[in-house]
């Protein structure tokens, strides 16, 4: 009986590991449309299940959104949620086909214009190449202490700018220091 239980547990463990490997390898090769669809379905499920958030924003990160545009094949998605009290912003950056990401920020500026940094999302300024990135590169929270630049310390102003479409997510790389992919919130 003991060997049969061990055999069954081994099969279950092998199945779980196989699914994890398949999921990870499959996720890193997703085209932009599939990433968008996955994010949208996850966000709608989260919206129904989680009453602690007030607003949800997603944006596709593309090289064609940059000013000026570039020909990078990189892509990504930024998911942003604001809590009910409007005191905290949660963010998650998912990228594909991008190399040596140096930093990522929220910038204040309308689509088609460049603007100043108002919050850090990712920092790899130590000079070490990060190599290829496929998947989540940054996830965290922004509070008023993390709001910098023109909106320094003013969470209300940052949230209002997000609602008004005045904030964009910019992912900077070693190859394109001004930003390789970008998306307007």
UniProtKB/TrEMBL annotation:
It holds the Pfam family CHRD. Residues 53-185 form the CHRD domain. Residues 1-25 form the signal peptide. The keyword Phosphoprotein does not apply. It comes from the Bacteria. Keywords: Signal. InterPro entries: CHRD. SMART domains: CHRD (SM00754). This is CHRD domain-containing protein. It comes from Aestuariibaculum sediminum. The lineage of its organism: Bacteria, Pseudomonadati, Bacteroidota, Flavobacteriia, Flavobacteriales.
């Amino acid at each position: 009986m003991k060997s049969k239980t061990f055999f069954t547990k081994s099969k279950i463990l092998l199945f779980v590991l196989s699914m994890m490997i398949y999921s990870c390898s499959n996720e890193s090769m997703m085209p932009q449309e599939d990433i968008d669809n996955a994010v949208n379905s996850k966000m709608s499920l989260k919206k129904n299940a989680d009453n602690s958030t007030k607003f949800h924003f997603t944006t596709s990160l593309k090289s064609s959104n940059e000013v000026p545009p570039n020909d990078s094949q990189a892509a990504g998605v930024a998911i942003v949620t604001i809590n009910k009290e409007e005191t905290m912003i949660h963010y998650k950056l998912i990228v594909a086909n991008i190399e040596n990401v140096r930093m990522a920020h929220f910038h204040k500026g309308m689509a088609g214009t460049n603007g100043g940094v108002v919050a850090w999302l990712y920092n790899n300024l130590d000079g070490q190449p990060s190599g290829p990135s496929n998947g989540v590169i940054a996830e965290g929270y922004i509070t008023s202490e993390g709001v910098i630049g023109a909106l320094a310390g003013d969470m209300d102003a940052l949230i209002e700018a997000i609602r008004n479409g005045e904030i964009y997510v910019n992912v900077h790389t070693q190859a394109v220091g001004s930003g390789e992919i970008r998306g307007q919130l």
